[in-house]
Specification:
268 residues, alpha/beta, 9 helices, globular
Length: 268
């Protein structure tokens, strides 16, 4: 990733993305909080060794971790769900994962990216195994989970509205944009189906047609989070609002997968 994985080196200041949506994560892995008015929803718990940063940032934003009711994970890689067990045990949160990734997080399958990152997995069983189209409701928020296979088979993209009481915008957090698990070497090493790539291409086309005002990345680089944080802290309360960004990102991710497939076809 080209990012220093030392926790404190990955520190980013927290900010209000818009209205009741907050960024409280780190540079290596993003964490967002939705304040539903009836409890908090955490989107990705992040690395287990960075949880102290997430909790610190929550306190800076006036968000009490004891009010986190749900922890929704985008997919079963350790950089996104590594702190899931800690959140569950410390605060009694209900944890979610896409159903096909359930054995990634409980350690049954060696596909959590723990080996590649040389970080031990702290396995846990998710309370809720999500399926395509499932709705998650809490307070004033309803989240639609869309199965987005490719990066992992159970990657979930989450769509929901955020509001400041005056304006409402549609936000979306993509389940997994990385192509590092869709190259031939990785697929062959773990004996995975090549069909994941075709499914990814199909779903990216579908996602690109969905209207989204606020594109959230589960890695800060995906949606240029650091630069947007600077703009928010400088007084721009709509730094994350851009109705063109989502479609462009979805199609660029599609094209990256097409490119690696073409290289393989040409023997490169």
């Amino acid at each position: 990733m080209g990012i220093d994985m030392t926790p404190c080196q990955g520190y980013l200041e927290p900010c209000r993305v818009f209205g009741n949506l907050y960024f409280v994560g780190t540079l290596p892995a993003s964490t967002h909080i939705i304040d539903t008015g009836d409890g908090l929803i955490m989107l990705d718990s992040g690395y287990q060794h960075s949880l102290f940063i997430v909790l610190h940032n929550m306190h800076l934003m006036g968000l009490d971790p004891r009010n986190v009711k749900y922890v929704l994970h985008t997919h079963g890689h350790i950089d996104h769900m590594g702190a899931g067990k800690a959140m569950k045990e410390m605060f009694g949160c209900t944890t979610f994962i896409g159903e096909p990734d359930k054995d990634y997080i409980n350690g049954v399958l060696p596909l959590s990216w723990s080996k590649e990152l040389d970080i031990p997995l702290i396995p846990f069983e998710a309370d809720v195994k999500l399926k395509d189209g499932d709705k998650i409701k809490l307070g004033n928020t309803e989240i639609t989970a869309v199965l987005t296979p490719g990066h992992t088979p159970g990657a979930m993209t989450y769509f929901f509205d955020v509001t400041d009481g005056k304006e409402t915008y549609r936000a979306a957090l993509h389940g997994g944009m990385g192509i590092n698990t869709m190259n031939k070497a990785f697929i062959d090493e773990y004996n995975l189906p090549y069909s994941y790539r075709d499914e990814f291409l199909t779903v990216q086309e579908r996602l690109s047609e969905m209207p989204v005002d606020i594109y959230l990345g589960n890695h800060a680089a995906h949606n240029n989070t650091p630069e947007k944080i600077k703009r928010v802290l400088a007084g721009d309360d709509k730094a994350f609002v851009n109705s063109d960004e989502w479609k462009k990102a979805m199609l660029e991710a599609r094209d990256r997968v097409i490119a690696i497939m073409e290289k393989e076809k040409n023997g490169q």
